[in-house]
Amino acid sequence: MIEVDVGLKLGTFDLEVAFSNGGGVIALFGQSGSGKSLTLSLIAGLMRPDRGRIALDGEVLVDVERGVFVPMHRRRIGLVFQDSNLFPHLSVKQNLLFGRWFAPRREREIDFDKVIETLGIGSLFARRPAGLSGGERQRVAIGRALLSCPKLLLFDEPLAALDMQRKLEILPLIEQVRDEFRVPIVYVSHAIEEVVRLATTIVVIDAGRVKAVGSPGEVFGQVAAHVAEERFDRASVLTMRVVGANAAYGLTELKHPSGTVWLAGPAGPIGGVARVIVKATDVTLATKPPHDLSIRSVLSGTIEGIEKEGPLAMVAIALDGDGRLFATATRHALDELRLDCGVRVFALIKTSALDERQISSPRS
Ligand SMILES: Nc1ncnc2c1ncn2[C@@H]1O[C@H](COP(=O)(O)OP(=O)(O)OP(=O)(O)O)[C@@H](O)[C@H]1O
C-alpha cells in the first residue's frame, strides 16, 4: 500500500497531490509538465517535499513535520525510466546482479531465473548496454529493477522512446510483471492506451493537482468539460466478448450488446472477454445504419449528453445494453444531423484505429 500526501513548490510550479493504492498498478496520467515525474521523484526519494507524508506498506518514508526522510537506497523501490539508465561499463548480467545486490539476502523472494525467462533476456547476458536495441535495454532495466525485490516499482514513461512494435512487445511483459510477481507499480505516462491497459487505478494530474481518481472506466467515462483541449485524451472503455476471427484478413470479431467491433490483430481466445479502448476522435456518428461504407464496426445507442466548445462538441452515447461511448463531432455536424439528447445514433469506429494496444484482458 502506497500512501502519498505531499506538497512541493519549485519556482512557479506548485505541486499538491494526495492518493493511495492498495495494489496493482496506479497510473499517474496527465499532460506534459503536469507534475507526474516530480511526484515519482518524491516517492523514490530523489527529491524532498516541502510538506506531507509518504508511506509504503505502513512504513513512513517521508514525514516532513516529524523530520523523517528515508534515503533513496533504503526505500526498496525499483525504478524504470524512459532511457533505461543501465551502467554502460557493466555487462547485462552484471547490471542485473547489481539490482539483486540491493535486496537483503533473506528478502530475495523474486526468483532470478523466472525474471530472466519472463523478460526473455538470458541470451543477452554477455552484452553491454550500448549494443542492445531500445526494447532490449528496457527489458533489462525492468529485470534489474525487479531483481532488487522491491516493495514498489516506479515506471516513468518506460515506453515513450520505443517504436510501436517494441511497445507492443514490452506492454505484455509489464502486464506479466504486474500479474506474476505481484509487485505494486506506480506508472507514469501520458499515453492513454498504456494507462487504460495497465492500470487498476488512474490518478489524473493537471497543473500540479489531482483532478480525478478512479478506475479507467470511471476516469475516462466522465463528460469532458474542455472539449477542444481534451478531445485527444478522451476515450471510452468497453467490455466485449471475443466471438470470432477472420484468419484470411487477420481480423478479430468482438461483440457488444450494441453491435460488433472488428480489431486488426489478435484479442485473446474466442469466448474470452476483452476491454476495448475507443478514442473519441476515432468515432463518427450516423443517424441510420450505414450502407455502402467501408466501416465494419458499428455500435448503436442513444445520446445522453453533449458538451459544446467553439467549433467542436463531445457527444456521450449510452450504448444499447451497457457502457458509454464518447465521440467528437463538429457543432456544424450536430446541427445538420439534428443530434441532441435522446436521439438514436450509430457510432462508426474505424477498424484500423484499433490495434492490440487498445485491447486488454480485464484482471480479476
Ligand atoms: N528542479 C526544478 N526546478 C523548477 N521547476 C521544475 C524543476 N523540476 C521540474 N520543474 C517543473 O515542474 C513542472 C512539472 O514537471 P514534471 O517533470 O513533473 O512534469 P511531467 O508531468 O512529468 O511532464 P512530462 O510528461 O513532460 O515528463 C514543470 O513545469 C517543470 O518545469
From TrEMBL:
Keyword tags: ATP-binding, Cell inner membrane, Cell membrane, Membrane, Molybdenum, Nucleotide-binding, Translocase, Transport
Keyword Lipoprotein: no
SMART domains noted in UniProt: AAA
Recorded superkingdom: Bacteria
Entry keyword annotation includes Metal-binding: no
InterPro entries (UniProt xref): AAA+_ATPase (IPR003593), ABC_transporter-like_ATP-bd (IPR003439), ABC_transporter-like_CS (IPR017871), Mo/tungstate-bd_C_term_dom (IPR008995), ModC_ABC_ATP-bd (IPR011868), Molybdenum_import_ModC (IPR050334), Mop_domain (IPR004606), P-loop_NTPase (IPR027417)
GO molecular function, one term: ATP binding
Gene3D superfamilies: 2.40.50.100, P-loop containing nucleotide triphosphate hydrolases
Residue ranges constituting the Mop domain according to the UniProt record: 292-358
Residue ranges annotated for the ABC transporter domain, each copy included: 1-232
NCBIfam families listed in its UniProt record: modC_ABC (TIGR02142)
PANTHER family in alphabetical order: ABC TRANSPORTER I FAMILY MEMBER 10
Family of this protein: Belongs to the ABC transporter superfamily.
Protein name per UniProt: Molybdenum ABC transporter ATP-binding protein
Gene name tied to this protein: modC
